[in-house]
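User: I'll paste a sequence; please echo it back and then give the predicted structure.

Assistant: Echoing your sequence first, then the prediction.
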Amino acid sequence: MRILLDTHLLIWSALDRLPAAAARFFEDKANTLLFSPVSVWEVAIKHGLGRAGFTVDPAFFYCGLLSAGYQELSITGRHALLVSTLPQLHKDPFDRILLAQAASEGIPFLTVDRRLAQHPGSVIFVGA
């Protein structure tokens, strides 16, 4: 199964801090784990702002995702357009495009964010 991962899960995976509910998706070799350039962008911006939890170097983060075997899901205009149809349950632009990407591609979105889990569609909450 193809699965789009939220940014926090990608960071926690690199730090070996995945919640048990998420780890099973990462360990299942039948799953293709996808990341969005949006996650790299989010890390770059928040790292530059000195935000807590975003201390990883963005270039190191990106290279690490690729070397770990995650596949990059490109952003398309179709994804961007779908953002306008999402309910206003969550206003974070990074999270909204991730949700739109998953919905547009018809794939599940794995998240630790309870607010994102309220969105319609295939959102899988794996938080503690």
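The radius of gyration is 14 Å. The chain has one domain: 2-125.
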